Amino acid sequence: MDKVKAFSIVEALANGVDPITGEVMDASSPYNHPDIIRALFLILNTQPKKHIKKTLEQRQTENIAKRLPKNHGLPWSQEAIEQVIALFNSQTAVADIAERFARKPNSIIGLLRKQQVISDEQAYAMGFVFRRRQGSA
Questions:
Q1: How far, in Å, are 10, 34, 38 from residue 44 at the CA level?
Q2: What is the dihedral of CA 28, 34, 37, 43, to 10 degrees?
Q3: For the chain, domain boundaries
Q4: What does pTM read for this prediction?
Q5: Predicted local distance difference test score (pLDDT) of residue 84
Q6: Separation between Cα atoms, residue 47 and residue 108, nearest integer Å
Q7: d(CA 18, CA 2)
Q8: What mean pLDDT is predicted for residues 103-132?
Q9: Which member of 12, 26, 60, 103 lies 3.0 to 4.6 Å from 17 by CB, making a disulfide possible if both were Cys?
């Protein structure tokens, strides 16, 4: 028996369902005793959860649901980076660039800074919020 099948059997038991027939177990079943149910859920919760990588569309949908720009936190393509730099160099406002690429203005400024198009001082003057990376002093 593989781990996935064993896990699904224990999960069914914890939910009061017969894993073989799929029927709800009788209230008098030992699997419906509160201590047994707690023990089964404890076992289920100690299993490491598999990280399921979300698709680009799923991440964009989540961003919209959170009222964030559609592409917030998503990686930049090289083509998009080049377009942002070209727009910035042609005097397009950062807010307009951000709207066009469905990003926050701070993301545009951060990208320009990372690509060395602008200096830290210029980024700061534009309102860039410098964030400390976790683990740095």
A1: 7, 15, 10
A2: -150
A3: 3-46, 61-126
A4: 0.59
A5: 98
A6: 40
A7: 19
A8: 92
A9: 12
